[in-house]
Design brief:
The structure is a single chain. Helices cover 34% and strands 18% of the residues. It is α/β, with parallel strands linked by helices. Strands 3-4-5-8-9-10-11-12 form an 8-stranded parallel β-sheet. The termini are far apart.
């Protein structure tokens, strides 16, 4: 039975172009699987109705969720709600994702085709906020956003957004057409955007929508007080891997202790911390459980002082969490261990134990007698075997630093460029 919460959900401006949304949004991804088994159509519609009844009007989906089935489900739920009171966000750009490879597409003709298909699946006349889900580095952002701008002019889209974009890309995109929102991961354990992205968005008047605000459910107790579903994508998330998870549980205990001080749950405190980062920050936690939805909305009632925020940040520093941020659905590198010529391909999906084994093996061997080789240069691999190659200087450096951190070594003996970037000639 649906019931109305006593918590008032305020409304805020997202960006500078007139988009107004509920202070807390709802991420729809989990309704059709990935983190957990898909829910029934009836349950999915029911939880969206419950969210709306309690003041949430900002719903976030994408064509790749399902794929496609998420938008279809949201479209059916919207039929039971007043469309003019809903702010609907969807995304395009991930052409293919099968769990181990990803293909990004930002070509203008693909942008238009995706929008037309999403409108049809959602069964709506327009999408309020349309994001590029991931940036296609092989297509100038000016070309992609130029086509998105045309969609705005045609009334098919009202506002534009970018997800996981670099500062340079955001600035260039905004020069073509005002960007209303940038969607990034932001939580107590992921704060990469605070140094550059947040100040830039505030300079340009762009709102910040934060996905995974509860650390993919970790701060709500996922894998701590409840087990991960066997088919959850989180099973290969670095922060949820066996050794890292045990270390991270210590910080979860710190959050639990702090939440008692504020008379709330750990997840409410984690959300409240994020909500207090600014009125231009709109978290979009997702859940398939009514009680979790109510719990998330309750975070809006928690008031934190500057001293409280500092205490929480100091007690749970982002660098204190074990395991890297999962920045993409595909990650791999090759290492050569010892003097026997052993070459091992490590894919993050389903192979975190092997990765930890390699790192542990290196720690138990004399480093000076090991010749360690790894490679960079393949940004992504498509389902048909095609490569997206990158050898720009900043990418070279970022890859090397990330590999050093993953391998937990001070240096790499032999560093390869994995494939040549023909566009660099």
């Amino acid at each position: 039975m649906e019931k109305q919460s006593n918590v008032h959900v305020p409304r805020v401006k997202l960006g500078s172009q007139g988009l107004e949304v509920s202070r807390l949004g709802y991420g729809c991804l989990g309704l059709t699987g990935l983190y957990n088994p898909p829910v029934s159509k009836e349950h999915g519609i029911s939880i969206i109705n419950q969210a709306f009844l309690n003041g949430i009007t900002f719903f976030d989906t994408a064509d790749v969720y399902g794929p496609h089935s998420n938008e279809i489900l949201i479209g059916k739920a919207l039929k039971q709600l007043p469309r003019e009171k809903i702010q609907l966000a969807s995304k395009f750009g991930i052409e293919n994702f099968d769990g181990s490879s990803v293909m990004i597409n930002g070509r203008p003709e693909y942008v238009r085709a995706c929008c037309e298909a999403s409108l049809k699946r959602l069964d709506v006349a327009y999408i309020d906020l349309y994001y590029q889900h991931r940036v296609d580095k092989s297509v100038p952002i000016e070309d992609t956003v130029g086509e998105m701008k045309k969609l705005v002019e045609e009334g098919k889209v009202k506002y534009l957004g970018l997800s996981e974009a670099s500062p340079d890309t955001i600035r260039r995109a905004h020069a073509v057409h005002p960007i209303s929102a940038v969607q990034m991961e932001w939580s107590l354990w992921t704060r990469d955007l605070e140094q550059e992205i947040v100040p830039l968005c505030r300079e340009l008047g762009i709102g910040i929508v934060t996905y995974c605000p509860l650390g993919s459910g970790f701060f709500a107790g996922k894998a701590v007080v409840e087990n991960l579903p066997s088919d959850s994508i989180l099973a290969w998330h670095p922060k949820f891997s066996r050794n890292n998870l045990e270390k991270n549980k210590i910080l979860y205990a710190c959050l639990t202790n702090l939440s008692r001080k504020h008379h709330c749950t750990p997840s409410q405190l984690a959300l409240a911390w994020l909500l207090h980062q600014g009125s231009d920050v709109v978290p979009i936690p997702g859940t398939t459980k009514m009680e979790n939805l109510e719990n998330n909305i309750g975070s809006l009632n928690i008031k934190l002082t500057e001293e409280d925020l500092k205490e929480i940040s100091d007690a749970l520093p982002a660098e204190g969490f074990a395991g890297e941020r999962l920045t993409g659905p595909f990650a791999a590198y090759i290492v050569k261990l010892g003097t026997q010529g052993l070459e091992v391909l490590v894919l993050l999906k389903g192979n975190l134990d092997k990765l930890e084994l390699i790192m542990q093996a290196l720690k138990e061997l004399p480093r000076e007698e090991i010749q360690l080789a790894t490679k960079f240069g393949i940004a992504s691999i498509s389902k048909d075997g095609g490569f997206e190659v990158n050898w720009r200087p900043e990418y070279v450096r970022a890859c090397c630093e990330a590999s050093l951190k993953r391998l937990q070594v001070d240096y790499i003996d032999l560093y390869y460029q994995h494939r040549i970037d023909q566009t660099a000639y």
